[in-house]
Amino acid sequence: MTELLSTLLPILIVDALNPVLFALMIVAIGSSKPIANSTALLFGHTFAYTVSGIVIALGLERITARLETPHTIDFVIQLILGLLLVWAAAGSRGGEASKAKEPERALTPAYCFGYGAVINFIGIPFALPYFAAVDQILNANLTTEASVIALAFYNAGYALPFLLVPLSFGLLGEQSKPFLQKINDLMVAVFDKLMPYLLLALGLFLIADATMFLVNGEPLAWGSG
């Protein structure tokens, strides 16, 4: 499990750099129910991400089960994900991925929960690292229970930085908004400038790890295989 965490952590850092979600959390604290709406938005996103991870894992396991060389197909999938990440890195250089469409109706906790569930599918640069994280969990050959726990911890780690929004508003009230907006502006700047390179680095690592396994039978990553 320790080895798996060492491979999941850099993926989580790339994955959690999500200015779209953070910006929408700030929109939520500007509503009539700031803490309830922003928290519901985050819970909706986390719930959908967790469910998506389970569905992705089941889908990848079914693909694996149909083939006689499961370990090889795991790393073939990883190789494809690495190539897609490199492609996403090339396509995210324009900065458009950091822009989000704001909700068009009055915000309520129920609506924010549903909206949070929807926005986790916005943008390939956000989805691909999650596919890679699920693939790494599957490659670790854990029990079903341990895999679900690992996925739950991953999603909790993803949500943790975004809890800063409702917590800050709860402690500081309206005074927190300039501070949170500065963080959002910083996230957008970092995302637009660094995300292509982070995606490229993660993609190249996955490609190298999968290629090493396919050629020599041993991956680079401790948590793989």
What does this protein structure show overall?
With 225 residues, this protein is mainly α. It has one domain. The protein has nine helices and no strands. The protein has helices at 2-16, 19-29, 34-65, 70-91, 109-119, 124-139, 144-159, 164-172, 176-216. The radius of gyration is 18 Å and the shape is elongated. The model has no long low-confidence stretch (mean pLDDT 77).
The low-pLDDT segments are: none
Query: Mind telling me the C-alpha Rg?
Result: 18 Å
> What structural class should be given to the helix and strand makeup?
mainly alpha
* Quantity of strands, as a count: 0
Portion of residues in beta strands equals under 5%
Largest sheet: none
So what's the overall shape?
elongated
Mean pLDDT: 77
Helix content: over 70%
- Quickly count the domains: 1
Through-space gap between termini: 12 Å
Topology as H/E string? HHHHHHHHH
Number of helices: 9
Provide key terms for this protein.
single chain; 225 residues; mainly alpha; 9 helices; 77% helix; 0% strand
